[in-house]
Amino acid sequence: MTVALRAENVTKVYGSGADAVTAVDNVSFEVQEGEFVALVGPSGSGKTSMLAMLAGLLTPSDGKVLIDGHEMSRMGDRQRTKFRRQAIGFTFQSNNLVPYLTAQDNVELMLRLNGKRNKLGRQRSADLLTRLGLGNRLGHYPSELSGGQQQRVAIARALIHDPAVVLADEPTASLDTTLAHQVVETFAQLIHEQNRAGIMVTHDLRMTRYVDK
Prior knowledge:
Blueprint: E1 3-14, E2 21-32, E3 36-40, H1 47-54, E4 62-67, E5 70-71, H2 77-87, E6 88-91, H3 103-113, H4 119-131, H5 147-159, E7 165-169, H6 177-194, E8 197-202
Parallel strand pairs: 3-8, 6-7, 7-8
Antiparallel strand pairs: 1-2, 1-4, 4-5
């Protein structure tokens, strides 16, 4: 199997001197294509800082992150932004859907940003939303969708542009238990089916039943 993401001795320190706080301390791991991994820990344990470094939103104080063999910290700002847009899918705790776009248009936003919004892309977005149980909600706006439906739109948006790595930050935090299980189970199935490398940050140990490690 191919390694899609590798973290090598990654450390993140905020502040300096006596005020320095080490949020991530010398972490190394790798995730292969088609593998779904959970980063688990209580609030304040450094999960979000680690995820932000994996996404290229934060630069490690030491160590490096490689996605498809590319080290983002060596890239310039414009190159890193383009690479992140193409190679990484991201779902946020709050969904971050655009309120004035329909479910399908929210998903196709990533295709538009990458210059791939065409007839084939539109069909793929409809198929993916249908696969997620939203085939009758393509034209609905976020305000017309439940929390679970919004999260599934966010998952579709994270997968639609064929990223190498998909990152999810507490995707079930605002959902009840039943919906949380449904969302993570579907997310895991898609990670495996599409052969992506998936990483989910969670504090809920019940969700780890769906991950590979």
